[in-house]
Amino acid sequence: MKFVAFERTQQGTGASRRLRNTGKVPGIVYGAGEPRTIELDHNALFHALKKEAFHSSLLEMELGGATQKVLLRDFQMHPWKQQVLHIDFQRVDANTRVRIRVPLHYGGEENSPAVKTDKCLVSHVATDVEIECLATQLPEFIAIDLSGLLKGQSLHVSDIVPPAGVRVVRHGQLNPVIVAVTTPKAEEEEAATADAAAGAAPTAGAAAPAAAVKDAGKDAGKAAAKAPAAAKDDKKKK
Q1: What per-residue confidence (pLDDT) applies to 34?
Q2: What per-residue confidence (pLDDT) applies to 24?
Q3: Which DSSP symbol is given to 135?
Q4: Which residues of 176-212 are buried (b: 16+ CB within 10 A; e: fewer)?
Q5: Would you state the pLDDT for residue 207?
Q6: How many helices (H) and strands (E) does the chain have?
Q7: Would you state the pLDDT for residue 25?
Q8: Helices (H), the chain
Q9: Residue 36 burial by CB count (10 A; 0-12/13-18/19+): exposed, middle or buried?
Q10: CA 71/CA 56 separation, integer angstroms
């Protein structure tokens, strides 16, 4: 992508405020040389920021009649207005190694056995991943093929196959899930109902002996209560 920037001569809070009031955005470009303060058209920049490629691909910045390769590094938005307050770019060349997050594009899940045969649900847990590569090898995105997903399967960061020259960054031993396959809710409810029915059968069978013991206890109590009365009657007869 290509965009146009203009050199900014005035600096400071007041100068930046006046610049924003005229529909411009203050910014800076650094790396591979001296930092330079720049300004950009707000509306053009605002719409460019809505494009995925503007955040993760190598950009061509036209400044002072020359074109430079840059990467978007940071930008600040107004707390509640749709207004870009400031933006940072980094100059890069063929020897610059960068670390940046790039989006993940998923495809093919509708053809996977998990979806076609088992009617499972596929959850995209991660939407981007951090990579390291030369600036000239930076991909706009990494494609993930989900056509081989199976029921109960999940994909992790270690399962990503990046383009040549690109390394997926993993922090320590962490290997987070990027895609999870879950069983449909109706199937889970049927399994839970079957388990409950299987557990209820022994309980019903065990209730009968318990009731018999309870009745036997009642009969024994009644017999014990009648025994003193019978003994008293026998004494009177004598």
Answers
A1: 84
A2: 93
A3: G
A4: eebbbbeeeeeeeeeeeeeeeeeeeeeeeeeeeeeee
A5: 47
A6: 5, 13
A7: 94
A8: 13-21, 42-48, 52-56, 113-116, 185-237
A9: middle
A10: 8
pLDDT of residue 197: 65
Count of CB atoms within 10 A of residue 49's CB?
A: 14
In order of 118, 161, 180, the CA distances from 144 in angstroms are: 21, 8, 13
How many other CB atoms are found less than 10 A from the CB of residue 7?
11
CA distances, 80 to each of 76, 120, 178 (Å): 12, 40, 32
Collect all residues with Cβ–Cβ distance below 8 Å to 36 and sequence separation of at least 6: 7, 28, 29, 30, 63
**Residue 75 identity (one-letter amino acid):** F
Nearest to 187, CA basis, from 107, 109, 114: 114
> Would you give the end-to-end CA distance of the chain in angstroms?
122
Q: What are the mean pLDDT values of the chain's consecutive 10-residue runs (238 residues total)? A: 88 87 93 87 94 92 89 94 94 89 94 92 94 92 94 93 92 88 72 63 50 52 52 48
